[in-house]
Amino acid sequence: MPTILAIESSCDDTACAILKEGKVLANMQASQAIHAEFGGVVPELASREHMKNIWPLVTTTLKVSDIVLQDLDAIAFTRGPGLMGSLIVGVNFAKAMAIGLQKPIIEVNHMQAHVGAHYIDQPIPKFPFLCLTVSGGHTQLVQVTDYLRMEVIGQSIDDAAGEAFDKAAKLFGLPYPGGPVLNKHANNGNPIFEFAKPRVGGLDFSFSGLKTSILYYVQKQPEGFVTENLNDLCASVQKTIVDILLTKLQKAVEQTGITELAIGGGVAANSELRRRFQELGVKNNWNTFIPKFEYCTDNAAMIGIIAHHKYLGGDFADQSVGPLARYAI
User: Fold this and answer.
1) What is the distance between the alpha carbons of residues 156 and 152, in angstroms, rounded to a whole number?
2) Are residues 63 and 136 in the same domain?
3) Predicted model pTM
4) What is the pLDDT of residues 119-172, one digit of tens each?
């Protein structure tokens, strides 16, 4: 059974993990505080920070795992989707290390890995299952029939749910990253305001209209309105986004008949989404699965667990592989 070093560098966090026989020995991360002053990720700065962080982080992860380089059986990395400059750092580092150690490499799709986060700890969903994967850059409904066999059956036609959270938070004057801060304020408020919900057919999502609705509503209010009603505004935005997500998930259950349900991605750390998702499962007698918080946000353990199953199937990449800013499951 393999020992795998996994690297994740798709956005602004450098992450590294060691998995042995499919078990996580260490899952480390280096965040980039530099973006806070800009209110969002600056791609060029992210690339430079990855270059600073990646080798010290790999060294620390090996030490925490009590693993030496020669113990590794393969090196895995995020190929995409993500910021091209950030991906280049992780991909090239992994390829160079593999050449030096004469080890195989395994490329991993970042969004497939968010689904794969459910394979890290027991219990895991039974196949087939549906996974609602929600992050800052993507919103997808994925039908999963095996560890590596997945099909996107619904996705956002414009903005992602995580982006809607972050943009609303920025509009309300909250610091970056806005989603988690909005969640905290929402927990102290009531959803008394209404915003437009999209009318999108099938299992697809849309959040651009919601963002516009929030903007226009706030612009019409008198000075001081946002400050005085911050908690209720946050609760209202949060409820609207969660409503949209869970309505589509219920529709997917009706269309597929699948009642093994999972959520993943950074927005799966949102307390309202987690609570209502579990309540929905209890109400309908569906089995629901949510990864630990550390496996919801971008991390290398989820890259490693997908790589583990690829290793078992002999699915390796060659040195000609390059990063992909867009990379469909």
Assistant:
1) 11
2) no
3) 0.94
4) 999 999 999 999 999 987 889 999 999 999 999 999 999 999 999 999 999 999
